[in-house]
Specification:
- The complex is a heterodimer of chains A (441) and B (102).
- By secondary structure, chain A is an alpha+beta fold.
- Chain A is rod-shaped.
- Chain A has helices spanning 2-34, 169-174, 221-280, 290-307, 321-328, 330-347, 371-387, 411-427, and strands at residues 37-43, 50-54, 63-68, 73-79, 88-93, 107-117, 122-128, 143-149, 158-160, 166-167, 191-196, 203-217, 312-318, 353-358, 361-366, 398-404, 433-439.
- Chain A has eight helices and 17 strands.
- Helices cover 40% and strands 26% of the residues of chain A.
- In chain A, helix 1 (2-34) packs antiparallel against helix 3.
- Chain B has a five-stranded mixed sheet with strand order 1-2-3-4-5, covered by helices on one side.
- Chain B has helices at 24-37, 39-43; strands spanning 2-12, 49-57, 65-71, 83-88, 94-98.
- With 102 residues, chain B is α+β, with helices and mostly antiparallel strands.
- In chain B, a hairpin with a 5-residue loop joins strand 4 (83-88) and strand 5 (94-98).
- The chains are: A alpha+beta (441), B alpha+beta (102).
- Chain A binds chain B through residues 370-373, 375-376, 379, 403, 406, 417, 420-421, 424-425, 428, 432-441, and chain B through 1-10, 25, 28-30, 32-33, 36-37, 41-43, 48, 50.
- Strand 17 of chain A pairs antiparallel with strand 1 of chain B.
Chain lengths: 441, 102
């Protein structure tokens, strides 16, 4: 069971990774689009840190009066001549209201609930503090990130995005702000102002302000996209690594399997070869048996009939072998056979085939050899055997019969001829070589 | 075609060593082949021919071997095929002569 699960796991693990990744991506995008919101509400009826001011601070004579309802504040004002640009405003303090405000840069939209009485524009200031250009305690040094809009032309609430803000040019000029600091910066806003707009008509006016909302995402889009890309990249890297290891493992397994197969094949071949060899070999002496002789004879017959290469046949028989067996036992008899084989093997060519014909009888098939050469070989072997000490108990001799094959003749005829020659050697007194020579009629 | 058993028993003449004889092996092989084809041997009515062959260096030419063959069966020594001589020179040229009946 667990093996089955392992197999299924091996089959699908990489696909599982991709499925998991797809699921994570889909959930992340869904969550981003329908959630993961970060909202900062400043609803003035409940918010304590705000105040209404007028241009009287700048030498003007405008008047402002503020009252609260359950859901909003109402700012009644009267713009009067006096200051060059008469105005009234509502200042909303964030943070400590001076140097440490709120970071509004993480929000991507700003909602403003504001209802004016009459036409005219309204200015929204996000005043930013930075040590680069602001002086603690001097409100005028807070950067004027401004936006001017006509509330009656906007939705309710009016919705803005940070890129719609700009920095007031007069403030840049008055404070000699370096060009590198003259861009919109809302990373530390201690003060928000809602002010009557440019060229607001003199006289009475009312603004009903419910409040502000800053809305953004918990994770910025860029970060989310980057995270997802990194995740996909890492996943594919992992898949590549897994595939690499799988491939290496598979290759090693295949190699091992192939080696085992080759080893088995080799063992089989050796076994086959040994079997074939043993089936054609005499187990005692190691020379060919009759079965092994057949294939050699066939080869030499072909050689004779096709190329005219003479083939001779030497048959030899150990003299008085029965007597050796009877006198010294079969072990000594076997010793004679083994030692005789060794001696003959050392005297013949590699191309000659030594065959144990049966009992104490051996045959040498000599390819490319006429009868006189075979007779010479037989004579040499006879002398070598006579002069060798095959066993310590007694001298051993052999009798030989030699015959040459005639093209196309039945091998039986050749054997009979050689056998007759051997018989003549035996009859003649043993330890001699007799050739079966041609006799013309 | 009939066949006849032929035996050749080789003996080096006294006073000479086998290993000193030039082309001994080749001469013996060639002579054997030659004898098997010689007319007196072919025509012999004897069922089994058995020769005793003596051989050694020629007294006149040390590079030539001289052979002398005689039938083992003493009863047959007067037959044409039963007494022969042969030479084998350094080029392995064989000359055989049968003496009975000359």
């Amino acid at each position: 069971m667990s093996r089955l699960i392992e197999k299924i796991y091996a089959l699908f693990r990489m696909n599982i990774l991709i499925f998991v990744l797809l699921a994570i991506t889909a959930i992340a995008l869904l969550a981003y689009n329908h959630g993961l919101n970060e909202v900062k509400d400043i609803m003035l009826p409940e918010y304590p840190y705000f105040q209404a001011t007028s241009d009287s601070a700048d030498g003007g004579s405008s008047v402002v009066k503020m009252s609260k309802t359950d859901s909003s504040i109402v700012v009644d004002y009267e713009l009067k001549e006096g200051y060059a640009y008469p105005y009234v405003s509502v200042k909303i303090l964030l943070g400590d209201g001076k140097t440490k405000g709120l970071d509004l840069s993480k929000y991507d939209s700003i909602f403003v609930w504001l209802k004016p009485r009459g036409e005219g524009s309204v200015r929204l200031y996000l005043r930013n503090f930075s040590e680069a250009y602001s002086v603690a305690g001097q409100e005028t040094t807070l950067k004027f990130n401004e936006l001017e809009f006509f509330p009656l032309e906007e939705t309710y609430p009016a919705i803005f995005v940070p890129r719609e803000f700009r920095v007031a040019g007069w403030w840049v000029a008055q404070n000699n702000i370096n060009v590198h600091h003259a861009h919109v910066d809302i990373s530390n806003v201690p003060l928000v102002e809602i002010q009557t707009g440019t060229n607001a008509p003199l006289g009475y006016g009312t603004m009903e302000i419910k409040g502000l909302r800053f809305k953004g995402k918990t994770i910025p889009r860029e970060k989310l996209v980057t995270a997802l890309v990194v995740m996909w990249f890492v996943t594919f890297l992992i898949i590549l690594i897994i595939r690499f290891f799988d491939y290496s493992r598979e290759r090693a397994a295949n190699k091992k399997k192939r080696e085992e197969l080759e080893k088995n094949l080799l063992a089989l071949e050796i076994e086959k070869s040994e079997y074939e060899k043993s089936s054609k070999e005499d187990p005692l002496t190691g020379c060919l048996n009759r079965a092994g002789f057949s294939s050699v004879l066939l080869r030499e017959q072909e050689n004779l009939s096709k190329n005219g290469c003479p083939v001779s046949f030497v048959i030899l028989d150990i003299d008085f072998f029965k007597h050796i067996n009877d006198t010294y036992g079969h072990n000594v008899g076997d010793e004679v056979l083994v030692n005789l084989t060794k001696l003959i093997q050392s005297k013949i060519r590699n191309t000659d085939a030594l065959v144990r014909w049966g009992g104490e009888e051996f045959v040498i098939l000599c390819g490319d050899t006429p009868i006189q050469n075979a007779q010479f070989l037989a004579e040499k072997l006879r002398m070598a055997i006579e002069n060798a000490q095959l066993i310590k108990q007694q001298q051993v001799t052999c009798s030989f019969g030699v015959a040459e094959m005639i093209a196309g003749e039945d091998p039986k005829r050749l054997f009979e001829r050689a056998d007759k020659a051997l018989y003549a050697s035996k009859q003649g007194g043993r330890n001699r070589v007799t050739s079966a020579t041609f006799k013309r009629g | 075609m009939e066949f006849r058993p032929l035996q050749l028993h080789w003996f080096v003449v006294e006073g000479q060593a086998e290993e000193d004889l030039p082309n001994r092996d080749n001469c013996v092989i060639r002579l054997t082949g030659r004898l098997m084809g010689e007319s007196p041997v072919q025509a012999s009515p004897v069922e089994e021919l058995e020769y005793r062959v003596y051989y050694g260096k020629s007294a006149e030419n040390g590079e030539t071997l001289q052979f002398a063959g005689i039938c083992e069966d003493q009863a047959l020594v007067s037959r044409p095929e039963c007494r022969w001589s042969a030479t084998c020179d350094s080029d392995l040229n064989i000359v055989v002569k049968f003496h009975n009946g000359d």
